[in-house]
Write a structure and sequence with these properties.
Blueprint lengths: L1 E6 L4 H4 L7 E5 L2 E2 L3 H7 L4 E7 L5 E7 L8 E3 L36 H7 L10 H9 L5 E4 L5 H8 L7 H10 L4 E7 L6 H12 L5 E8 L16 H22 L4 E3 L1 H6 L22 H12 L10 E6 L4 H15 L2 E6 L17 H8 L7 E5 L15 H7 L4 E5 L3 H4 L8
Parallel strand pairs: 7-8, 8-9, 9-10, 11-12, 11-13, 13-14
Antiparallel strand pairs: 1-2, 1-6, 2-3, 2-4, 4-5
């Protein structure tokens, strides 16, 4: 059964008078286990929904609706399937030894349901027979799979899980059932790079349309997990990897009319190269996983420049992670030229996780405070929207309200691509 956490206004559930706390028992005689079941079974046009209201009374609703029309019932959070691997690059193991972090940072998930619904990468090492049955029954495609290496010995050495070595047969099983996969390699020098990576690329490519894409992402380390046998990639290693990806892309383009293989933005940044334009990343389907994020941001700002108001006299500060600071500084100069605003781009060092963590989305509230402090008398401070969750909490459990309270004269706003906030900003009063 599922307990309703919220009901979206104006949708079917709201019109039927279903309230938070209601238990959802069955749809068309099928028991509901979690949010994924609800999403799957509510797609029918004719529904018999069996519920139990907060008073304990069972109520059966007969519903006729449009195909794929949502009932508007938001379940309470499911219990997440935990990871059973011991990867040397595990980010959870890289958490700083501080008193308190945002609760989600302590959860090491490896849940195929989250893979389908939200694009989380999973290793497939904890699937039970009933999980495989459900994947095929509910057509959970595409899935996002952390392959890391197709060589069994290498994958076993990386994941340290006896069930991890057989990734090839798992991928073949998914393919035979019509399930498509976005594959990812977290690249660790000396472990799964070089010839091992080339084998991985070739093995995945040979599986044809079953593998929709392959992303190569450099290992990310904090100051707290550098003693686990993994080191960052050198500039030369990044260059060689990019060249390897380029060869795979050229082959896929010639043979299948698709780019297929992608080097993550961070590989280009670590190599000291410009991140390619959005055309490199096809339809930006993987942008949420750091593949094309820089290009997407750059393109959005470029596109929106002509829509920005006159902001002469306004003083704006944008906080950037160290990796993006040069790119955002250049874009900020263009924004200043277009709007007349004073636009400062400031680099924030990551005190929470250490200097190897360079993205703005992984900065803590205290990191933002340190960066914004010298600009406390500015009109507007922009921070990355990805740095806070839906509850407006930073990774170090600071809240957005805490940050604003610490700098009361500076208007602070989370932003996805800078111009989203600036478009609504009023000109300076004369």
């Amino acid at each position: 059964m599922i307990r309703v956490g919220a009901v979206r206004a104006g949708l079917i559930g709201d019109e039927l008078g279903i309230v938070p706390g209601t238990l959802l028992l069955q749809i068309n005689g099928r028991e509901l286990r979690d949010a994924l079941d609800l999403r799957f079974y509510e797609s029918d046009e004719a529904i018999e929904l069996l519920t139990r209201d907060p008073g304990g009374e069972d109520v059966l609703f007969d519903i006729l609706k449009e195909p794929d029309e949502s009932l508007g019932l938001v379940p309470e959070p499911d219990k997440v399937r935990r990871c059973t691997n011991a990867c040397p690059f595990c980010f959870v193991k890289g958490n700083p030894k501080v008193e308190k972090l945002r609760a989600g940072l302590y959860i090491k998930d490896d849940d195929y349901r989250l893979s389908f619904m939200f694009g989380h990468y999973v290793t497939l090492t904890n699937l039970r027979d009933e999980d495989w049955d459900r994947i095929f029954e509910q057509r959970l495609s595409p899935l996002y799979v952390s392959v890391h290496a197709t060589d069994p010995d290498t994958r076993l050495a990386m994941l340290k899980n006896p069930r991890s070595a057989d990734i090839g047969s798992h991928l073949d099983r998914l393919a035979a059932g019509g399930i498509r996969v976005h594959a990812q390699v977290v690249l660790c020098p000396g472990l799964n790079d070089g010839p091992v990576l080339q084998r991985t690329i070739d093995d995945l490519y040979e599986r044809g349309e079953a593998i929709l894409s392959l992303s190569i992402v450099p290992v990310g380390l904090t100051s707290y997990n550098q003693d686990r046998g993994v080191r960052p990639l050198s500039v030369e290693e990044c260059e060689r990897t990019i060249e390897m990806v380029e060869r795979a892309r050229a082959r896929a383009t010639a043979e299948r009319d698709t780019s297929w293989a992608f080097a993550a933005d961070e590989l280009f940044l670590l190599a000291g190269r410009d991140v390619p334009g959005f055309e490199y990343f096809d339809d930006l389907e993987l942008v949420a996983n750091g593949v094309g994020a820089v290009s997407d941001l750059r393109d959005r700002i470029e596109t929106d420049l002509d829509t920005l108001p006159d902001l002469a006299g306004r003083r704006i500060v944008l906080v950037s992670g160290t990796s993006m600071e040069p790119h955002l500084r250049s874009l900020g100069e263009r924004i200043a030229a277009r709007t007349g605003a004073t636009f400062e781009t400031v680099r924030a060092d990551n005190r929470l996780f250490g200097p190897l963590v360079t993205t703005a989305g992984l900065l803590g509230g205290a990191d933002y405070l340190e960066a914004l402090g010298p600009y406390a008398d500015f009109d507007l401070g922009l921070i990355s929207r990805t740095a806070i969750n839906d509850d407006d909490l930073f990774l170090d459990d600071w809240s957005l309200m805490d940050l604003r309270a610490a700098l009361p004269d500076l208007e602070i706003w989370p932003s996805e691509h800078v111009t989203d906030v600036l478009r609504d900003m009023r000109p300076c009063r004369q």
